[in-house]
Amino acid sequence: MSNKLLEVMNLVTQFYNHGQSYPVVDHVSFSVAEGEVFGIVGESGCGKSVTAKSVMRLISYPPAKIIGGEVLFDGVDLLQLSEQQMRHIRGNDIAMIFQEPMTSLNPVYTCGNQIEEALMLHQGMSRAESRAKAIEMLSLVGIPLPEKRVDSYPHELSGGMRQRVMIAMALSCQPKLLIADEPTTALDPTIQAQILELISNLQKKRNMSVIFITHDLGVVAETCDRVMVMYAGKVVEQADVKTLFNNPAHPYTQGLMRAVPRLNAKRERLFTIEGIVPHLANLPEGCAFAPRCPQAGDMCRQMRPVLEEVGEGHYVSCFAARKGVAENV
Amino acid sequence: MWAQTIRKLLSMIPILLLVSIVLFTIINLLPGDPALAVAGEAFRDEALVAQIREDLGLNKPLVVRYFNWLGGVLQGDLGRSLKSRQPVVEIVRERLPVTLELTFLSMFFSTLIAVPLGIYAALHRNKAADVINSIVSMLGVAMPNFWLAILLILAFSVNLKLLPSSGYVPFFTDPIGNLRFMILPAFSIGLSFAATITRQTRSSMLEVLGQDYIMTARSKGLRDRVTIWKHALRNALIPVVTVISMQIGRLIGGAVVTETVFALPGIGRELVDGISQRNYDVVMALILITAFFVVFANTFVDILYILIDPRISKKND
User: Fold this and answer.
1) Which of A13, A49, A255, B255 is the most exposed place for a label (fewest CB within 10 A)?
2) Chain A residues touching residue B311 (CB < 8 angstroms)
3) Which of residues 29-48 of B touch A (CB under 8 A)?
4) At residue A23, does pLDDT exceed 90?
């Protein structure tokens, strides 16, 4: 587990919009070990997806551009590769699945065609070989009658089935890393559970690393080994999943935990974090969370905290949390 | 797929029948009496006029005349020109190829230029090339065909003396000479067509490039070329094809006017002359044939949809 497959260091991705520029991913660092499931949590617009797309270098300029940092994959800095070398990594070593299965598949080509494409490109398979492999993949992700479905068009399948096709496509070239960008958000709960289980099983079977992007803490608890919480483009807390759930240190993480409805709690109004996420072009001077933070002091409004280790593998970027930990010790 | 194609083709029949009824009614509602036109200077001789009316079958009821005419049309008899007594079929055979060639040339080359231009503009959005392209397209849409035709004659025939200003030789007699006569008229009709197609291609390409499946294609590691030409273009073409089909009627209409400017012996001039001379059989035949080509082209495009977009054929089968 200790072998680092992916190591992201001080990644900065900037947005350029109407003459303004502002970082949407601000000095983000994390690493994913081989066979590890790493979660990125945060609300909409906090930079989770942009972080993932920056790793794949799928950010297009305009409007966005990666302006700093390193993305070491198997020891190679992806940000230094040529576009051609990068294409060889995409779909082959790192694959991605997206939030919207309804629109992520091209409506005018068959599912088989879209799976075969990557196989022929990266594995040099012939049309017949790649077709056989596509059928094999479809059956692996639990699609009934794969010999028939391989010739189906996306509109003939349900959302859950389409997401399975996406997974089949992503895993067809045996990638070492799968980035799943909210893969269950657009599906209904029973299908969500099936898809999560499928990803989980395949991950274990193939000892693949997975970056799981979600805003659903339930999904995190179920699937991830380690988690990183993002807020306004920055990492606010990072820990293994147990620590994060049992002992969340950052007030934002604590707020997120309290905002989850629980079956065994007595009925009362659900907790909400007051206020809204500030616009990234217009962040407050100190900690970005300070205006919404119940524990914020003067220091929080003037200075930006940095990520510091408060326990083993537990990193927090918060003045109040550090003080709290110090008092406890 | 085949069943659908046949169904589409069969649906042309009622449309054309309806066109024929409307056409026949309107022509016969027009003021002016063809018998008087045929009698010419002897129009005061009432016995003669009555005789002509009798010969032409003009004093039968409208419905009977319609069915007589339709019966003839279905057997390939389009009637005779009132003036020259020449069978209309012969006139059509002489004139139609010119108009069809003109329409085809302008459509084919406009599409050939406009689609890549639209793609290029979309890929270089808001750069100089895109802006220039937008301005030219806007001009192209705004300029009336016949005015552009006159300007082209002034520039290329009168001043530069590169191309003939009017006249025609059949393609099979002298292909190069034929094309020399056709370039200017085809260009003047084609420009606005091309401009419309370019703008449509650009905007639908931009829309498609923002779709999730383009991100999926890129995340697979496909080359940009494959992403654009395979994944984006086919989706982007669907609305473009719609616009092309809607423009076909306009293109033929434009051909009719432009032929007059360039003195091309197509159906356009024959039609204009026919209307002023109350040459009913000629007018009806030419309009019916034009309608046939417009309907046929639109049906062809409908069939093309089935090929481009799998969602259509599966839904209806």
Assistant:
1) A255
2) 107-108, 153, 155
3) none
4) no
| Predicted confidence band of residue A329 (pLDDT cuts 50, 70, 90) | very low
pTM, to two decimals? 0.79
d(CA B14, CA B185): 34
Give B9: exposed, middle or buried? Use CB within 10 Å, 0-12, 13-18, 19+. Answer: middle
B299: left (phi over 0), alpha (psi -120 to 50) or beta: alpha
Tell me the β-bridge partners of A31.
Answer: A7
Q: How many CB atoms lie within 10 A of CB B289?
A: 18
The minimal CB distance from A153 to the residues B216, B219, B311 is found for B311
For residue range A142-156, list pLDDT tens digits in order.
888 989 999 999 999
Show the low-confidence residues of chain B (pLDDT under 70): 313-317
Domain spanning B88-316: which CATH class is it, in words?
mainly alpha
pLDDT > 80? residue A195 = yes
> Residue B96: which region, alpha, beta or left (left: phi > 0; alpha: psi -120 to 50)?
alpha
User: Smallest CA–CA separation between A107 and chain B, in Å?
Assistant: 8
Beta carbons of A95 and B309 less than 8 Å apart:
no
Name the residue facing B221 among A92, A108, A153 (closest C-beta): A92
Domain boundaries, chain B: 2-74, 88-316
pLDDT at A216: 84
Exposure pattern of A8-46 as b/e (b: 16+ CB <10 Å)? beebbbbbeeeeeeebbbbbbbbebbbbbbbbbbbeeeb
Closest to A154 (Cα-Cα) out of A103, A192, A214: A103
Residues of B in contact with A166 (CB under 8 A): 216
Q: Are A252 and A231 in contact (CB under 8 A)?
A: yes
Q: Which residues from B are below 8 Å from A52, CB to CB?
A: none
Interchain proximity A103–B219, CB inside 8 Å: no
Partnered with residue A71 across adjacent β-strands are A8
